[in-house]
Design goal:
Blueprint (H helix, E strand, L loop, with lengths): L6 H4 L2 H7 L3 H5 L5 H6 L7 H16 L7 H12 L4 H11 L6 H11 L6 H12 L3 H10 L2 H9 L1
Helix pairs in contact: 5-7, 6-7, 8-9, 8-10
């Protein structure tokens, strides 16, 4: 790990996402999976964190082997809770490709559906993740949002 260069992960997230959107390029990064996993942590800058989330999303999309899948889900969830729009968007885009996971759906229901900027993407993720349990997840979203609680109590 001592000779790993982070420079390629610091680039602009839009450029990075476009460049690393095909299977061949994403496959070439798998040898660095441990560093990419570390790059999701708060000790790295926003571009590195967003780009690492993108790589995990693409690995899931192309069914490439990923270590620490449960832990990466947790770290990407932290991006969604960060309050930084770029990190939230990177985390949501990564989750579009992850296999069904109840924790992801609950994160969407609790934290994303009530945010106008991200709710559409949140609904797409929920549709993919838990199409059978949408009503239950919407209940979680509405119950945890005070504005929606008042609306539900009026019915």
């Amino acid at each position: 790990m001592g000779d790993f260069e982070w420079g390629w992960l610091v680039v602009d997230t839009d450029f990075f996402s476009e460049w690393y959107s095909n299977k061949t390029r994403v496959s070439s990064t798998i040898t660095n999976i441990d560093q990419i996993y570390l790059g999701l942590t708060a000790r790295y800058g926003n571009n590195i964190r967003a780009n690492c989330a993108h790589l995990f999303g693409m690995m899931a999309k192309f069914d490439l082997p990923m270590k620490n899948t449960n832990n990466s889900t947790e770290r990407i969830s932290r991006l969604i809770l960060s309050g930084n729009d770029d990190l939230i968007l990177a985390g949501l885009r990564a989750f579009l490709y992850f296999d069904s996971d109840k924790k992801i759906s609950i994160q969407m229901a609790k934290h994303i559906l009530s945010d106008e900027k991200f709710s559409e993407l949140g609904f797409q993720i929920i549709e993919k993740q838990e199409s059978k349990h949408v009503a239950k997840l919407l209940n979680i979203a509405f119950r945890d949002n005070p504005i929606n609680q008042n609306w539900m109590n009026e019915k």
